[in-house]
From TrEMBL, chain B:
This is Zinc ABC transporter permease. GO terms for cellular component: ATP-binding cassette (ABC) transporter complex. The chain crosses the membrane at residues 18-38, 47-65, 71-89, 101-119, 139-162, 174-194, 200-219, 226-249, 255-276. The keyword Transferase does not apply. The lineage of its organism: Bacteria, Pseudomonadati, Pseudomonadota, Alphaproteobacteria, Hyphomicrobiales. Pfam families: ABC-3. It is a multi-pass membrane protein. Keywords: Membrane, Transmembrane, Transmembrane helix, Transport. NCBIfam families: AztB. SUPFAM superfamilies: ABC transporter involved in vitamin B12 uptake, BtuC. It is found in: Cell membrane; Membrane. The keyword Transport applies. Belongs to the ABC-3 integral membrane protein family.
Length: 289, 288
């Protein structure tokens, strides 16, 4: 096993994820290093959230694979909209879901668990909020509670999908500190974010998505003007008449993201190599757009 | 007072059986109703109640008015509709309300067709409205078994059911139980409706599931007390309904459900989270 492989926490091999035969993440290759802190940026519809769902396994790949190389425990924070805030639960009920990986379906909540949940709530600045119904929390308080749940999960790989949306500056600052703490603890963290200034300031590595990786590596390099321009040209629409994607049409195969040289694929899959073969509709392969 | 409240249950065996049957039904059906309500699936219970009709009708067609074949038939029809509608919504673009509507309407039409092929409107009335006052030992044993299965299953899967309601994507990220739990839950819904239809009929069995749950929502903001309160409201409704039925010679099923209906309306207005407390009363407020 080479050095890159032993360090990789996640390895993407030709990973294609999507919906209704249209790819949202198209032929992603590369790896995420153990202990790295990566921002995932890109326009709406560029495949960021889809990639998170693919990594965590709630969305099955249409093609290729996503390997959790070291079988790391994963904590996943979906966007807030996925949560039913009208459900009659207290903050502590929400945070205690984070005990699932350890306690599973039937394990009893122990005294240590309760102490850990109290510590997690304190770490996110929500001490005293244990009994608050979740439908009375502000957006920022709910996000803090969800971060407490991630803390309790004690995962090696942490995936956060747009955690800074509709959150005030102070809360963002506090959440960033937590993310940095996880980074310091050698946990692997991937965060979907939109604020490029924030990314430049706090995230050492960045993956710029436009259905394919436009650039991936050191943040300063990745967020260069020409890359951002290429990403901005990304066409997020699905084209019903897009040609079927054939496996031999020159997808890059990278050993590590630092070597990523994505060709000019920002959302447009050129089929310049030979004819495009029409496939019948029942085939499940992805379309090119 | 004794004559009014206690004597009917002491002196008549059929009232004791009716009481035992309906209390056991409340024990299982009410907490299931709470989760149906919290998952915004209240009308799914109603659809499922209609869906079990053809199964019961097949049992009736072949064996006459007997509890075991009709129950098994109802169970099979209910499971087919629940699993079919659940699968269509999980694996296609269609949402569960639409797939459930499609499946239960087909099922209901089949059921009415079958009952009309043989049997009188009296038989149809029996299947549709039940007779809690004529519960036999088989029916009581069945209802007891269903209550125990329901409570044990809820106990085992409690954490997963709560997680599936509150944050389904999170559950799917830490466990593969998300989809199985959904189907197990639908199975419990079917089981309790089938248990209820002998006593209350296919149409009203869902009433004992949903009305106490809907009423309990107005009194508490936590799931566990909500389930306990729903069961208590179910108990109260069953006792009140049976007494009403006994003293005023009313059909027992509707009397039980209407009693629950009264509790629902009272809770809607006077519950701690009801209209009076949240909208009409002037509240003092704290400084922070």
């Amino acid at each position: 096993m080479n050095a890159v492989m032993t360090e990789a926490c996640l390895t993407f091999r030709d990973l294609t994820l999507g919906y209704n035969s249209h790819p949202a993440v198209h032929h992603l290759n590369g790896s995420v290093k153990t202990g790295s802190l990566t921002a995932v940026v890109g326009a709406n519809g560029s495949g960021k959230s889809t990639l998170m769902k693919g990594i965590v396994g709630v969305l099955k790949p249409m093609a290729g694979s996503c390997l959790n190389t070291r079988n790391a425990r994963v904590a996943y924070l979906p966007q807030q909209s996925e949560l039913d805030r009208s459900f009659p639960a207290r903050v502590i009920d929400l945070v205690s879901l984070g005990l699932w990986p350890r306690r599973g379906l039937l394990g009893r909540t122990t005294k240590e668990d309760r102490e850990e949940m109290a510590k997690a709530l304190m770490a996110v600045g929500l001490e005293g909020f244990e009994g608050r119904p979740i439908d009375t929390l502000s957006g920022g308080q709910l996000q803090r509670a969800l971060f407490a749940r991630v803390l309790v999960q004690d995962a090696e790989l942490i995936l956060l999908d747009e955690p800074f949306n509709a959150v005030d500056a102070k809360t963002i600052g506090d959440l960033i500190q937590l993310i940095k703490r996880w980074h310091g603890e050698r946990r692997t963290v991937m965060v979907v974010a939109h604020d490029l200034e924030l990314v430049r300031e706090h995230f050492p590595e960045t993956l710029l998505m436009a259905r394919r990786p436009v650039a991936w590596g050191e943040t300063k390099e990745t967020l260069r003007a020409e890359n951002l321009l290429r990403a901005r040209r990304f066409d997020e629409a699905w084209h019903e008449d897009a040609p079927w994607c054939e496996p031999d049409h020159g997808h890059e195969h990278l050993n590590g993201h630092s070597h990523a040289q994505p060709h000019d694929h920002a959302g447009h899959h050129h089929h310049e190599h030979g004819e495009v073969h029409e496939r019948p509709d029942h085939e499940s392969g992805p379309r090119a757009a | 007072m004794y004559d009014f409240l206690i004597a009917p249950f002491v002196e008549y065996g059929f009232m004791q059986r009716a009481l035992a049957g309906s209390l056991m039904l409340s024990l299982g059906a009410c907490p299931v109703g709470v989760f149906l309500m919290l998952r915004r699936m209240s009308l799914t219970g109603d659809a499922m109640a209609h869906a079990i009709l053809p199964g019961a009708a097949v049992g009736f067609l072949f064996f006459g008015l007997q509890i075991v074949p009709m129950t098994i038939g109802g169970l099979i029809a209910g499971v087919i509709v629940a699993m079919g509608a659940g699968a269509v919504s999980r694996f296609t673009v269609q949402k569960e309300d639409a797939s459930m509507a499609a499946f239960y309407l087909i099922s209901l039409a089949l059921g009415v067709l079958m009952v009309s092929m043989r049997g009188s409107s009296v038989d149809l009335m029996h299947v549709l409205f039940g007779t809690v006052l004529a519960l036999n030992n088989d029916a009581l044993a069945l209802i007891a078994a269903i209550s125990i299965i329901t409570l044990v299953t809820l106990g085992i899967f409690w954490r997963a059911i709560v997680a599936e309601c509150l944050d389904p994507l999170f559950l799917r990220s830490v466990s593969r139980l998300g989809t199985p739990v959904h189907f197990i839950f639908l199975g419990l819904v079917v089981l309790n409706l089938v248990g209820g239809f002998q006593a209350l009929g296919t149409l009203l069995s869902v009433g004992l599931m949903m009305l106490p749950a809907a009423a309990a929502r107005f009194w508490t903001a936590r799931v566990e007390p909500m389930c306990a309160l729903a069961i208590l409201i179910g108990f109260g409704s069953c006792i009140a309904g049976l007494l009403m039925s006994y003293h005023a010679s009313l059909p027992s099923g509707p009397a039980i459900i209407l009693s629950a209906g009264v509790v629902y309306f009272v809770s809607t207005v006077f519950g701690t989270r009801g209209v009076f407390n949240t909208r009409l009363r002037r509240h003092r407020h704290r400084t922070a």
